[in-house]
What does this fold into?
Amino acid sequence: MNAPLLRLSGVNAYYGAIQALKGVDLEVNEGEIVTLIGANGAGKSTLMMTICGDPKARDGSIVYDGTDITAWPTHAIMQRRIAQSPEGRRIFARMTVYENLLMGAEVAGNTDTPATLETIFNLFPRLRERIAQRGGTLSGGEQQMLAIGRALMSRPRLLLLDEPSLGLAPLVVRQIFGAIRDLNRTTGLTVLLVEQNAYQALRLAHRGYVLVNGAITMAGTGAELLARPEIRAAYLEGGH
It folds into this structure.
């Protein structure tokens, strides 16, 4: 069996004196969608940021494509064909859709910008319609599409997606999750997805992990976790 594309082993991370991650073990194989679910404050976004080098893991190791990147600076990590669509989108509000997308290509030195743009516009046709519009004037769903599109402009091997459904209408959520599924199926893109919408995330993912108070408490396929009564009670009952 091939080594995982990404492997976290015994990762501890802190904000000052507060321990945010507690001995996290997690693997993402090439071509998989892996989701991390958990309540607010469980440490999901901290885990994503720790992979990107800020905060640094105080203990344990983070290995990407066979290389230990635990101590690497953020800019060096992101140049290894890792891209992040962060929580809260963080697009450039005064720039147009086109300019935002070009920023994603610039960071990674993507020289095939027209072909990558076409891929993104096929994935999110609304961005083609809004190409000259400033990012700050887009709807929440359009801004999320732009944040994902900007990350994809670097032609990543691993996409880190942090809360893509946050604050969006159900119809837009289904559209965005459908786009992620299509991208994975057609290009083999590897995705690590952090998501509060456990139902949608586990339906989408090949495998999932549950994070509680900074520690992994459960792991399995998406279908296995969806079927677990404790998962249903904690994350699914009362609506999806």
Q: What stands out?
A: The chain has a mean pLDDT of 90. The two ends are 35 Å apart (CA to CA).
